[in-house]
Amino acid sequence: MKKREDKINIIIRSTISLLQEEGAGNLSMRKVAERSVMTLSNLQYYYKDKDELLLATAAYYFKCCEEEVMKTWESLKMFEAFPEQKFIREILSAILVEEGRSDFAMFREIWALSLRNKALAESVHQYYRKYCVWLVELISSFSKYPEKVVGLLVPYVEGYSIMGSAIPLDKKGTIDLLSGLIDLLNKPDH
């Protein structure tokens, strides 16, 4: 079983690096096979076609995003009490993806592909539904309005990965703005 998992990890990482380097338009099963140091037929044993490979790659990418949030959550949980503000700032620091980071390209490629691939679009949609429910549950431990917090953060964070370099605030300014809005949201008169 370990050998199969290792092969799958190699294939997924190869796909990600090709998407980041060459974009979705240049991705092919043959290139992934070459990058993974295997034959095309061996690659097709694991993923019958490019669509199946892209679904697995997107699932892997989104799993990594969730793990990033959980890593931040776990690092803060060791403190007896931490303010929501600190959690929000730490999460935003971890998940606001700036241009130039490798996951920036991956995020853009998944979205671009999902516009042309119905199965991938549905997978992305299902991921976000599950991710939002999970974030609401996580944030509900310290916020009175976790749905509103998630409703603000998720679209902003995702849009930031595409437009962040164009807005007039740097990352710190963006974190200040969003955490300030969330603070206002949680005040008793809201």
From TrEMBL:
Pfam families (UniProt xref): TetR_N
User: In terms of domain of life, where is this protein from?
Assistant: Bacteria
Domain (HTH tetR-type) spans: 5-65
Give GO MF terms, alphabetically. Answer: DNA binding
Q: Note the DNA-binding span(s) on this chain.
A: 28-47
Q: Which UniProt keywords apply?
A: DNA-binding
Q: Which InterPro entries match?
A: Homeodomain-like_sf (IPR009057), HTH_TetR (IPR001647)
Among its keywords, does the record have DNA-binding? Answer: yes
The protein's name in its UniProt record: Transcriptional regulator, TetR family
